Amino acid sequence: MSKKLYNCNRGCTFRIIDTKFPPDYPPELVEELKKRTFKLHKIDGMYSYCTDDKGEVHHPVAWSEVEILAEGKGLVPFD
pLDDT value at position 27? Predict the structure, then answer.
């Protein structure tokens, strides 16, 4: 099931289908990140605060199209 990241609950795990990362992310890193699993912690403005399966922090845009792997619990995490 796919949806926009801003419609996901705090703690959901997902894979990125289509997104934009901050401009300082090199294109080859973006392609690698599309293969990883992420956990959503919060939405902060137009970017999100997520950790990948290696525990590294990333900030895909809030309107990223994602594939939900496990639903999170709680309200939509806007801060």
Answer: 83
